[in-house]
Design a protein that fits this description.
binds phenylalanine; 19 helices
Length: 462
């Protein structure tokens, strides 16, 4: 059951909405390879660490840190950081989840069928520009998330995941085949898999920036639901005799496969229409796949099924975000599940309205500037704060906790009992102790340095 719940959390908007547009924006092949490396040496070790902590403590993240560290304030605070990340991420995740539900209804109604690329862009931009449409679908998505969390995550949900997740995989397979046959296979695959390494350290204007590398690392956390304790929560569901490394590898492989399949489906179409792969941003999946649905036989049905399954994948991730927040209030503060869900869900919903209005009523409000000095909309800024600061900081401490702090016997028992392989264990321990904290520490320093400009001074030769 763990695999299903964990895959349900990992696979979501991160794979199908966010990864493809990041791969496009940050230059294709080199970014994709950097991302794969980050999954292997940062994501996978931290995934193992979180499951281990969760299974040992059998508690929510705040409780788990507090129990294993015997109430140490510092480590308990790391658990709280996770709860805060859940709040922040779910607020805008629900807005984008709302877009997918909106597109489900648009597909069923045939709104974008047989439209040209210009019109399809317009449909997306009109959706963003309409504050009511944004608020309504955000509310629908958040209400669905709260509804399921009230009834408890374990019951029922897994049966759905068991059916719908394979369907999503099959449907993506169909879209990939369609893209390869009817779209521009050479253009799409070439962009995604032939690296131009210079793109990893430069922006569109050719100036030095560490941003693409940092984004690849940050996304490894986001896509595997790491750094905030979602996998600690689900690790507590893993049976005593199941292997942690095998489960973690399985989840990471599935998650990566979905992201790559979605990207192939999208970029073969991008090149077929001669669109600019770097330009689309958060609208990519909503602007490109409808082009394919307009052309292919049965496109209306396939498009409707696709956005329905995507909404569902987003929902199972949103549930894991809310569960981290709610579980803390239930276990550690003895609130009733219903009370905790309604109160916390409502607070998150209100916070999310700021993201929902970030492309319309509040379009002139920008929180952060990106490297080019351009202001970023609220939703994009909040996403950056969560993905590139909050999750990596949480992940950094989780790696230190699992690698150094917890008792050797606990690590041995969790990773070696049963089918545990010694070689994997040794490699994991080494990477988690030394490599992962250093790499993630550098990521955080570089992010902070963006405002100081030291690296730019060193690498940019200015
Ligand atoms: N992993 C989810 C996705 O890729 C998002 C998520 C992040 C869920 C953090 C839970 C915790 O869509």
């Amino acid at each position: 059951m763990f695999i299903l719940a964990a895959a349900g959390s990992a696979i979501g908007l991160g794979n199908i909405w966010k990864f493809p547009y990041m791969a496009g924006k940050y230059g294709g092949g080199a970014f994709v390879l950097m991302y794969l490396a980050c999954i292997g040496v940062i994501g996978l070790p931290i995934l193992v660490a979180e499951i281990l902590i969760g299974r040992d403590a059998r508690k929510n993240p705040v409780g788990a840190f507090s129990v294993i560290s015997r109430g140490n304030r510092f480590w308990t605070a790391v658990g709280f950081l996770g709860v805060a990340s859940g709040f922040v991420i779910l607020s805008y995740y629900s807005v984008v989840g709302g877009w997918t539900v909106d597109y489900f209804t648009k597909s069923a109604a045939g709104s974008y069928l047989e439209a040209n690329p210009g019109r399809i862009n317009e449909i997306f931009n009109q959706m963003l520009a309409n504050p009511w449409e944004q608020a309504v679908w955000h509310t629908v998505f958040m209400a669905a998330t709260m509804g399921i969390v009230i009834f408890g995550v374990k019951e029922g949900l897994e049966r759905w995941i068991e059916v719908l997740m394979p369907l999503l995989l099959v449907l993506l397979g169909v879209l990939v085949v369609y893209g390869l046959v009817a779209g521009d296979a050479a253009g799409g695959l070439g962009y995604l898999f032939i690296p131009d390494w210079s793109k990893l350290v430069t922006n569109a204007a050719g100036e030095y920036t560490p941003r693409p590398m940092l984004e690849a690392m940050g996304h490894a956390f986001f896509t595997l639901s790491l750094g905030m304790g979602a996998m600690i929560t689900y690790g507590s569901y893993l049976g005593d005799h199941e292997s942690i490394p095998a489960s973690a590898v399985m989840v990471a492989l599935l998650d990566t496969a979905i992201a790559l399949l979605a990207s192939i489906a999208i970029f073969t179409i991008v090149f077929q229409y001669g669109l600019d792969p770097t330009a689309a941003g958060p609208g990519l999946v909503f602007q490109v796949l409808p082009l394919a649905f307009s052309q292919m036989p049965g496109g209306r049905f396939i498009g409707t099924a696709f956005f329905l399954l995507l909404s569902f994948a987003a929902l199972t991730s949103a549930i894991s975000l809310l569960e981290v927040v709610v579980a803390h209030f239930i276990d550690d503060r003895k609130w009733a599940r219903r009370t905790a869900t309604v109160i916390m869900g409502t607070v998150i919903w209100v916070l999310g309205l700021f993201s929902a209005f970030s492309y319309n009523l509040l379009e002139n409000v920008t929180l952060l500037e990106d490297k080019e000095g351009q202001g970023m909309p609220i939703l994009d800024s909040v996403d950056l704060i969560a993905t590139n600061y909050m999750l990596p900081i949480g992940g950094f401490f989780i790696a230190l906790f699992a690698g150094w702090f917890i008792k050797q016997q606990v690590r041995d028992r969790q990773l070696l009992d049963g089918s545990g392989s010694r070689a994997f264990y040794r490699a994991w321990l080494f990477v988690t102790r030394y490599f992962t904290p250093v790499a993630v520490g550098l990521l955080i320093l570089f992010m902070i340095d963006k405002h100081l400009g030291i690296a730019e001074w060193v690498f940019g030769g200015k």
